[in-house]
Amino acid sequence: MSDPPVRRDDTPPDPIEMLLRSAGAGIEPDASRMERAMLNVHREWHETLASRRTARRQTRLAACAAVILIATLVVTLWPAAASPVATAVRLTGGALVRHARSTAVSTELLSAGRVVMAGDEIDTGAAGRVLLDLTSGAQLRIDTHSVAQWKSPTELQLLSGTVYVETRVHPASQASSVSHIRQLTVSTPWGDVRHVGTRFEVQVAEGSTLVRVRDGVVSFSAGSAAPVMVRAGQQLSISNSVITLQPGPGSAAPEWDWLRAIGPSFAIEGRTLSDTLDWLSGETGLQVIYLSDGARSQAHALILRGTIDGLDTRQALLAVLAGSGLAFELRADRVEIRAE
Fold first, then answer.
1. Under the phi-then-psi rule, with left for phi > 0, alpha for psi from -120 to 50, and beta for the rest, what region is 310?
2. Which domain covers residue 215, as residue numbers?
3. Are residues 232 and 139 in the same domain?
4. Which of 9, 250, 259, 318 is deepest in the core (most CB within 10 A)?
5. d(Cα 48, Cα 55) in Å, to the nearest integer?
6. Cα separation, 31 vs 96, whole angstroms
């Protein structure tokens, strides 16, 4: 042990300094241990860096996932701009239209010329009937005591009451052909009705649904079951999950009479008698039969004047024939025409 340092004053020696001097020369560490220690430090440093990189990567992935989730929620929950589905052409007795915008629901009287939007609900009440021209190219009539909501331009949900869909264009209407009409689906609590180029009626009452086809074909589907095809002159009834297909009313039967009260207008001025009879035949369901070529030629040549506005379609049919100079006979399902 070394001697304490000689001091030139009377200041007592510093105990820390004395302790350091008493320690003597340090011991040189073993080289292999130093190398292992350096390797351990190096490994721990890299592990720390890797852990930090993993944490940053996970943070970025979480942020991306959050952005994707928010975008998905916005697309799913954000209210899309409503699209037009139909235009009200004619109304009788008054009907209401309810539409939701943001968090508010408003109700107002439906008027002719009003554009109906996706999401709107039409309620005809006890006395109302509505005729609509659809953007899909079809035409729709809604009977009294009916509530129907548009889900999209090609899907109508019938909650209660009766609707009549016409996708077959009358020859005299000069409108688009049925090939240009987008398929319309009428959804009910018991299944969906889709047209295949036709005219049909769907009724929804408590506990049952009834589908009647005036002409053409419709398809009824429910769940995973195979679709049921309903053809002209047939009706399909669904009650308590039991589906029954049976003969329905003829095209001129009284069951279709309500349609005449809310039918579209037709200007006869300047049209031929044959064109007018074709249109009235479609409305009344009465088949027009010419008993001779002469009667047919006369109907093609005769140009009509005047109007049938305000007349029931069956009354209009009788009126134009009465002034045509042709003889005719009205039967239950047809009108027979002959030249006098």
1. left
2. 84-255
3. yes
4. 259
5. 11
6. 96
